[in-house]
Specification:
about 120 residues, mainly beta, Immunoglobulin-like, five-stranded antiparallel beta sheet, four-stranded mixed beta sheet, globular, Transthyretin-like family protein, secreted
Length: about 120
Protein backbone atom coordinates (compact mmCIF):
# COMPACT_ATOMS: atom_id res chain seq x y z
CA UNK A 1 0.00 0.00 0.00
CA UNK A 2 1.39 3.36 -0.94
CA UNK A 3 0.56 6.80 0.37
CA UNK A 4 -1.23 9.01 -2.18
CA UNK A 5 -3.05 12.31 -1.91
CA UNK A 6 -4.37 15.42 -3.57
CA UNK A 7 -4.53 19.12 -2.72
CA UNK A 8 -7.09 21.56 -4.16
CA UNK A 9 -7.67 25.27 -3.66
CA UNK A 10 -10.01 27.81 -5.15
CA UNK A 11 -12.63 30.48 -4.60
CA UNK A 12 -16.39 30.13 -4.91
CA UNK A 13 -18.71 33.00 -5.75
CA UNK A 14 -22.44 33.46 -6.19
CA UNK A 15 -22.49 36.23 -8.76
CA UNK A 16 -20.45 39.12 -7.33
CA UNK A 17 -20.74 37.82 -3.74
CA UNK A 18 -18.51 35.28 -1.98
CA UNK A 19 -20.09 31.86 -1.53
CA UNK A 20 -19.12 31.63 2.12
CA UNK A 21 -19.74 28.56 4.25
CA UNK A 22 -20.13 26.24 1.23
CA UNK A 23 -18.96 22.69 1.95
CA UNK A 24 -16.06 21.26 -0.09
CA UNK A 25 -14.76 17.70 0.17
CA UNK A 26 -12.11 15.65 -1.62
CA UNK A 27 -12.87 11.95 -1.89
CA UNK A 28 -11.08 8.90 -3.30
CA UNK A 29 -13.78 7.02 -5.21
CA UNK A 30 -13.39 3.29 -4.61
CA UNK A 31 -15.09 0.55 -6.59
CA UNK A 32 -16.37 -2.76 -5.35
CA UNK A 33 -16.72 -3.47 -1.64
CA UNK A 34 -14.15 -0.88 -0.52
CA UNK A 35 -15.98 2.28 0.66
CA UNK A 36 -15.03 5.72 -0.67
CA UNK A 37 -12.39 7.55 1.40
CA UNK A 38 -12.95 11.16 2.47
CA UNK A 39 -9.51 12.78 2.31
CA UNK A 40 -10.49 16.23 3.62
CA UNK A 41 -13.55 18.40 4.13
CA UNK A 42 -13.85 22.11 4.88
CA UNK A 43 -16.18 25.09 4.58
CA UNK A 44 -15.30 28.12 2.48
CA UNK A 45 -14.23 31.22 4.41
CA UNK A 46 -15.90 34.66 4.38
CA UNK A 47 -14.27 35.39 1.00
CA UNK A 48 -15.40 32.06 -0.52
CA UNK A 49 -11.85 30.63 -0.45
CA UNK A 50 -10.91 27.07 0.43
CA UNK A 51 -7.94 24.71 0.58
CA UNK A 52 -8.40 20.98 1.05
CA UNK A 53 -5.61 18.42 1.14
CA UNK A 54 -5.51 14.83 2.25
CA UNK A 55 -3.95 11.40 1.79
CA UNK A 56 -4.86 7.74 1.89
CA UNK A 57 -3.05 4.42 1.42
CA UNK A 58 -4.10 2.32 -1.56
CA UNK A 59 -2.61 -0.48 -3.65
CA UNK A 60 -3.83 1.04 -6.92
CA UNK A 61 -3.86 4.68 -8.07
CA UNK A 62 -6.55 6.74 -6.35
CA UNK A 63 -9.54 8.23 -8.21
CA UNK A 64 -9.93 11.64 -6.54
CA UNK A 65 -12.91 13.95 -6.94
CA UNK A 66 -13.87 17.32 -5.48
CA UNK A 67 -17.45 17.74 -4.26
CA UNK A 68 -19.02 21.14 -3.61
CA UNK A 69 -22.36 21.69 -1.85
CA UNK A 70 -23.82 25.19 -2.03
CA UNK A 71 -26.99 27.29 -1.87
CA UNK A 72 -26.27 29.81 -4.67
CA UNK A 73 -29.43 30.68 -6.64
CA UNK A 74 -31.14 27.78 -4.88
CA UNK A 75 -34.81 28.33 -4.31
CA UNK A 76 -35.51 24.64 -3.71
CA UNK A 77 -35.43 23.41 -0.18
CA UNK A 78 -34.45 21.26 1.57
CA UNK A 79 -30.98 20.12 0.55
CA UNK A 80 -28.16 21.74 -1.39
CA UNK A 81 -26.93 21.89 -4.95
CA UNK A 82 -24.06 19.42 -5.43
CA UNK A 83 -21.22 19.62 -7.95
CA UNK A 84 -18.58 17.01 -8.72
CA UNK A 85 -15.21 17.70 -10.37
CA UNK A 86 -12.83 14.87 -11.30
CA UNK A 87 -9.28 15.71 -10.21
CA UNK A 88 -6.73 14.95 -12.97
CA UNK A 89 -4.28 12.15 -12.14
CA UNK A 90 -1.28 14.45 -12.63
CA UNK A 91 -2.20 16.16 -9.33
CA UNK A 92 -1.84 12.96 -7.27
CA UNK A 93 1.16 13.24 -4.93
CA UNK A 94 2.96 10.95 -2.48
CA UNK A 95 1.78 12.67 0.69
CA UNK A 96 3.60 16.00 0.59
CA UNK A 97 2.36 18.13 -2.30
CA UNK A 98 4.90 20.35 -4.03
CA UNK A 99 3.54 23.77 -5.06
CA UNK A 100 2.98 22.57 -8.64
CA UNK A 101 0.96 19.57 -7.39
CA UNK A 102 -1.79 21.78 -5.95
CA UNK A 103 -4.80 21.94 -8.26
CA UNK A 104 -5.93 25.57 -8.30
CA UNK A 105 -9.45 25.66 -9.73
CA UNK A 106 -9.44 29.47 -9.69
CA UNK A 107 -12.71 31.34 -9.18
CA UNK A 108 -15.95 29.48 -9.91
CA UNK A 109 -19.22 31.38 -10.18
CA UNK A 110 -21.92 29.02 -8.88
CA UNK A 111 -24.83 31.00 -10.38
CA UNK A 112 -25.02 28.87 -13.52
CA UNK A 113 -25.96 25.25 -13.96
CA UNK A 114 -23.35 22.54 -14.41
CA UNK A 115 -23.28 19.18 -16.17
CA UNK A 116 -24.20 16.34 -13.83
CA UNK A 117 -25.27 18.78 -11.10
CA UNK A 118 -27.37 17.15 -8.42
CA UNK A 119 -28.96 17.73 -5.05
CA UNK A 120 -28.04 16.21 -1.73
CA UNK A 121 -28.85 16.77 1.91
CA UNK A 122 -25.63 17.18 3.94
CA UNK A 123 -24.83 18.67 7.32
Amino acid sequence: MRKQGVAVRGTLKCGPVASNYSKVRIVDIDYGVDPDDTLDEKRTDDMGRFEVTGTTRELTPIDPVLYIWHECMDEQTPCSRKLKFVIPKKFIHNGNPAPEQWLDIGVINLEGSFDDEGRECVN
